[in-house]
Every structure is written in structure tokens, then in C-alpha cells.
Here is the input.
Amino acid sequence: EAGVAQSPRYKIIEKRQSVAFWCNPISGHATLYWYQQILGQGPKLLIQFQNNGVVDDSQLPKDRFSAERLKGVDSTLKIQPAKLEDSAVYLCASSPGQFSYEQYFGPGTRLTVT
Amino acid sequence: AQSVTQLGSHVSVSEGALVLLRCNYSSSVPPYLFWYVQYPNQGLQLLLKYTSAATLVKGINGFEAEFKKSETSFHLTKPSAHMSDAAEYFCAVSPGGTSYGKLTFGQGTILTVHP
Here is the structure.
């Protein structure tokens, strides 16, 4: 079974530029999560999708971050415009359903904003 | 509201020694608790979970954790450390119910294993 795929693995941009990250969850997994992991901290949930609907986006900075999961499969997270404090690893995770305990994480995208 | 505190950002042990990683939680509802491991340049992997059944939980790679409600703790242990255990470990809490997926993570503990 293929795991959660993310791309790109690394990205360097200048502040005020835009960036997008892509995630393809494990086949058949209905729930998809995006996390932000700042160096030295644990992951922080940004947004949770159930199929193509948003379940929780309470911690997503909506003035600059957006995410979508068209067709309920893969997902894109966008930052526009980026700030220095957005430098972090962005992790995508999926689980079979909203009431599933285990989340399967991708390798992450490391973003550096200069 | 949920929160997790991991005591010690770095823990160093010798190969074959006991591993003890500490986690204390705060939760307004009966919690679901998890330990995840992260190897360099990889995503997080679930080690074990507590979901209100047995208070002593066994996980993969010889790790186990004990839920102690009176101490609001969920410490992770392994009797004998192996070099391959070197990684970063995260404790996490979920409120369960309709919010199983809403994990709140601790800041992580980096485990170093010396030969």
C-alpha cells in the first residue's frame, strides 16, 4: 500500500511570494489533515477535511493560507503572501475516516522563507 | 481545551538502558492519548495509543506507556534501548467524540542512544 505522498519536499521562497504544496493521501482515506511544524515544536493542525468538505479550519490563518480538496482525493495548501514566520515543515496526514484513531503522515514539505 | 507537556526536550541513554520519556496532559474531557515517533526527514509514525481501555498500552518496537489519571501522565518506556530508537518522540492528546482527529501535540523529545 502506497503511503501519503507530498511534493515538493523542499521549497525556498522570498517573503511576499506565493507557494503551494500538494498532498495525495492513501487510497480510500476519507479524512485528510494539514499540519504546520515549526522547528523545535510539535505539529499544529491547520485544517481537516472529510471527503471534500472542511471539518475544522479554526487554526488556519485565513488571511494568507488557503486549502482545497477537490473531488475528495488529493489536496493543495497555498500560502499567499508568505511571511518569514511561515518557515516550517508542512505535514499532510490521512486516515480512513473521521473517527479513526490512527493518522498516516507523509514526509512533509520543508519551506524556507527568506 | 487540550494541552500536552513533554518534560525534557533531549534525553540521552546508553544502548541497553531503560528509556523513559515523560508526558503530562491537560484535558477537560476523558482524553485519548498517543505517542508518535519521527525519524529524520520522515513523517510521524504511530507508536501506541490509549483509548480508555487498558491503562497499560503496548506498542510497536517494544515500547509501552501507562495512563495514570491521578497524575495526568502518559509516560513512554522501553526496557532496553537500541541504537535504532534514536529519533524524536511526540506525545499527543485528542478529545475523542466527534473530534478524534483533532490532535494536540507536545513539543517533542529527541532521544539519543549512545553505544
